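Sanity check

After download, print the first record. It should look like this:
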Amino acid sequence: MISKLKRWFGIATLLSAGVVPAAAAGECPPLLNYTFASLQDGKPMPLCQYAGKVILVVNTASYCGFTSQYDGLEKLYARLKDKGLVVIGFPSNDFGEQEPGTEKEIADFCRLTYGVEFPMVGKSVVKGKNANPFYLKLDEITDSRPKWNFHKYLINREATQVLSFSSLTKPDDKDLLKKIDEFLK
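Expected structure tokens:
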């Protein structure tokens, strides 16, 4: 049935509808079994595509005192992406309404101001009972929810361990880098 649907509708349409082919479903760790729209082009961005990578998840905002962390996040991503690190940005207007722009405005700001090339999802809610389901799961696993913009979650390659780092943790923080290195090995 799935293969027939894939032929009729294409895989992107199926993923956006939440239908995951059986083979992919068996290979995707449950923690990564979520799909979001990409900030840059609105196309479906299944987190399953990052299975086997170390993932740094960050809720972002363009008008925050921590916004300059985009620079460090991009440098970290550029330096370690070939070793298996992916940074994923989750723009959110949840804290101080510091991400009021449209998705196009956010994407342009990130690209033009900080040269951001790491993947980012469309604007979403990351706190409270209305948080997106991925963030709810990260909170459940770590018992640590974002208290402000640029909170970080670090996920190991198997997506079985998640560590939480506060907004005060910069992308070049020695403890964060030590854990990233451990997870990359």
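If your output differs, re-run the checksum step. Summary of this record's structure: The chain is about 35% helix and 15% strand.
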